[in-house]
Amino acid sequence: MTHAETQSYGFTAGICATGHSPVAGLAASLIAEAEAHSLPLLKLVVVASECPESVLSELKELETGDGRVQILVEAKRRGKAEAVNRILMRARGEFVVMVNADASPEPGAMARLLSTIRADPCVGVVSAMPVVGAVNGVSSLLVDMIWRTHNESSRLLNHLNLSNHSSEELAVFRLSAISMLPRGLVNDGAFLASVARRRGYTVKFSDLARVRIDTPAKVSDLIAQRRRILFGHAQVWRKAGKPPKTIESLLLFTPSIGLPLFVQIVARSPRFLLILPLAFVTEVSAALLSIKDAITSTNEHAVWRRVT
User: Least CB-packed of 81, 82, 160, 179 within 10 Å?
Assistant: First the structure.
């Protein structure tokens, strides 16, 4: 590949980190995968917000050893939208791969995403499939159901070519398809996917690219997380003009698609029947709280509370 082709087809990787996330190891794994698959990684930008010195020292060591790495330190958290914009302003190449600091892409996941988006100039976004850990309790079973329905709806929308939504754990974006994020935005992946769709690009989901994610350990923390996500979906709806297509919006606005899909998911995992009442209470509680947040503050959740 020539220098000009590398600049055109190359990509930037971006990570938004806060707290004690093992972000240096994640960054090093992305660099190693790029080298293993001969991927033209031009730049890797890490925004480290309120990270302890132990995390920063590892990142600075990585920056010193690789000229492509740039560490942007924030002494005070400013919100993920601000961090993503700082990455986008420094991005080089045609694509940007965004990874959550608490996510663990499986080997080859980034390469598969880049292969998919580079193969079709009409594709603006490709997101990976989030995978949760072992199910060993009521809260983890509830989390498993939520992410199972998320992935199944994403797979169906991908097949129907109707998706306008991307998860944020691991995704690749064509830079020409997206824009900077509005100040105070909560759900960055959903907004960027909606922008790409509005500009005429397709939004894809790859179940061949898997990313392991951390999930809330308690139902109360899950409600807090869902509260923020639903607030963010409503925020994207206001700013983009259309709601993100998720299992929730399919059930509400396109029940002919959403309801059969949900029934199929439950039929394949009958144990979900045991927690349907709890799932209903959790989602209604989160929805009511997100409506309250939307009424009382348009800036709610821009910097969100960390959950365990």
Answer: 160
> CB neighbours of 207 closer than 8 A, spacing ≥ 6?
129, 151, 155
- Dihedral Cα 263, 266, 270, 271, nearest 10 deg: -150
Strand partners for 14: 45, 98
CA dist list (Å): 2 to 5, 7, 9, 10, 108: 5, 9, 10, 11, 24
In degrees rounded to 5, what are phi and psi of residue 91? -65, 145
Of 234, 228, 216, 244, give the one whose Cα is nearest residue 303.
Answer: 228
Sequence-ordered list of residues with C-beta below 8 angstroms from that of 94, at least 6 positions apart, any chain? 8, 9, 10, 11, 174, 175, 176
What is d(CA 142, CA 245) in angstroms, rounded to the nearest whole number?
21
Closest CA to 205 of 303, 295, 112: 112
Say if CB 45 and CB 72 are below 8 A apart.
yes
124 touches 201 (CB < 8 A): yes
pLDDT by residue (tens digit) across 204-218?
999 999 999 988 888
Q: Determine the Cα–Cα distance for residues 128 and 212; give it in Å rounded to an integer.
A: 10
The contacts of residue 287 (CB under 8 Å, 6+ apart) are 230
- Residue 92's pLDDT band (cuts 50, 70, 90): very high
Cβ distance 207 to 129 under 8 Å? yes
